[in-house]
Design goal:
Elements: E1 6-9, H1 13-25, E2 31-34, E3 41-42, H2 50-53, E4 61-63, H3 65-72, E5 75-77, E6 82-86, E7 91-94, E8 99-101, E9 104-107, E10 111-113, H4 132-141, E11 147-151, H5 155-166, E12 170-174, H6 187-199, E13 203-205, E14 212-216, E15 219-223, E16 229-232, E17 234-237, E18 241-243, H7 246-250, E19 259-261, E20 272-274, E21 279-281, H8 289-304, E22 317-319, E23 326-329, E24 337-344, E25 347-354, E26 359-366, H9 372-375
Parallel strand pairs: 1-2, 1-9, 2-5, 9-20, 11-12, 11-17, 12-13, 19-21
Antiparallel strand pairs: 3-4, 6-7, 7-8, 10-18, 14-15, 15-16, 22-23, 23-26, 24-25, 25-26
Bound molecules: flavin-adenine dinucleotide (FAD).
Residues 9-15, 34-37, 44-45, 47-48, 81-82, 108-110, 129-130, 156, 244, 247, 276-277, 287-290, 317, 320 line the site of flavin-adenine dinucleotide (FAD).
Length: 384
């Protein structure tokens, strides 16, 4: 190949974070970003609290692809899906049949919403919101309706529930687990959050498995079992994400839960990198903003020629449920230990400690969120 050219697949936070970091280190190296979507820049975390911020979906787009292209001095090709990666010729084959060479390739292709396996004639009408286009669609569907059912009492489900309830919608949250944020909070924390969200009118249907979703006139019927069912005007699914691995897998790149990389964000091929929601870095799939920020910095340095291992400090996540402020830093699931919980009317402070008393995670709710800055430095790094 005559000229070095870095190709980034994906224009989400991960793709743009890498492009920015690369530009800081090298003003001239050619960078091409290929995106299956509009290619503009927006903050995805805002999607679950748009109504509370009073924003319109259109105003969520900070800059469109043309503006980003001139800001970063990169080529951006929106609505350009990559179909095939050919490692041997170092090219990517686009949907339109064109191929494009790369010297280094960055996979920032994100994750797909998980779909529950349900019966019923309305299953295909269940919405999910994982990007700005999805949000436009969802926002339009909210016009003139009252009652919304959300599958999933995790982070995203609770955030949407809070946002919709404050905006005046009747909200149901349905989950198979016994409490909201089951993977992030001890029981007392889940109860505290549930009570605060219930106080603004959110109705929880926990320990509940939905069997069918059927259309009944202009509404939907969610059938839990023979005796239990609810109806709603719209059904939103927020039961988690699955890293997009198919493109890499088809190219013979090692995948597991995500696209597998080492600490240099390098796949088995030294010229192909991955980060963001699609990546599994040293065994960790971390679909959040802060890991992207750290990974992008290290990846850009490595690509430019200064191999840099990513380090993740503690990275607490703020839960955007204004009815119950919360911040969580879940422990690594391999660590054996237990929660020490201090709960009262004002809040919950839960510290996850191993048998030797070392702190590995926390969950702070209500007034206890004030302690975040004092406790965070006591945590071990997520990746040392
Ligand atoms: C509603 C919501 C709220 C959230 N809130 C928070 C929060 O409060 N805090 C936090 O830390 N995290 C939050 N997150 C998670 C965070 O937003 C994500 O971790 C992050 O945005 C992922 O960025 P990404 O670039 O990896 O993926 P994406 O944003 O999904 O981008 C993937 C890109 O790849 C493109 N693409 C995919 N396949 C191809 C292909 N074959 N060819 C070309 N292009 C392709 C897509 O078009 C897209 O541009 C939230 C997520 C959601 C959905």
């Amino acid at each position: 190949m005559s000229q070095r050219s870095i190709v980034i697949i994906g224009s989400g936070l991960a793709g743009y974070a890498v492009a920015r970091e690369l530009r800081k280190l090298n003003g001239g190296i050619p960078i091409t970003m290929l995106s299956a979507d509009h290619g503009g820049f927006y903050s995805k975390p805002m999607l679950s609290n748009v109504l509370a911020t009073g924003k319109t979906p259109a105003s969520l787009l900070n800059s469109d692809a043309a503006q980003m292209s001139s800001q970063l001095n990169i080529t951006i090709r929106p609505y350009t899906r990559v179909n095939i990666i050919d490692q041997s010729s170092r090219t990517v084959l686009l949907e339109n049949g064109e191929d494009l060479s790369y010297s280094q390739l960055v996979l920032a292709v994100g994750a797909d919403p998980i779909r529950l396996s349900l019966a019923g004639d309305a299953v295909d009408e269940i919405l999910s919101v994982n990007d700005l286009n999805d949000y436009h669609h969802f926002h339009k569907a909210l016009v003139g309706i009252k009652e919304i059912a959300i599958f999933g009492a995790g982070l995203i489900g609770c955030e949407f529930a809070n946002d919709l309830a404050v905006a005046g919608y009747q909200v149901h949250v349905i989950d198979v687990s016994a409490q909201p944020l089951g993977r992030l909070l001890p029981e007392e924390g889940g109860k505290y959050l549930q009570d605060r969200l219930a106080a603004i009118g959110i109705r929880f249907h926990l320990n509940t498995k939905t069997q069918r979703v059927e259309r009944i006139g202009s509404r939907y019927r969610l059938i839990f079992d023979e005796d239990r069912m609810i109806e709603a005007d719209l059904v939103l699914s927020a039961v988690g994400l699955r890293p997009r691995i198919k493109l890499a897998e088809a190219a013979g790149i090692h995948v597991n839960r995500g696209v597998v990389t080492n600490r240099y964000l390098q796949t088995g091929n030294a010229n192909i990198f991955a980060l963001g929601d699609c990546a599994e870095v040293e065994g960790k799939v971390l679909p959040f903003v802060l890991p992207i920020t750290h990974a992008a910095r290290a990846l850009a340095a490595t690509v430019i020629g200064a191999p840099t291992a990513v380090r993740y400090p503690p990275m607490p996540v703020l839960v955007k449920t204004p009815a119950c402020p919360a911040v969580v830093s879940p422990p690594d699931p391999v660590v054996l230990g237990e929660w020490q919980v201090d709960a009262n009317q004002e809040g919950v402070k839960a510290l996850f400690q191993d048998q030797a008393g070392n702190l590995h995670g926390f969950a702070l709710l209500g007034a206890a969120t004030k302690e975040k800055n004092a406790i965070t430095p006591l945590l071990p790094p997520v990746l040392a």
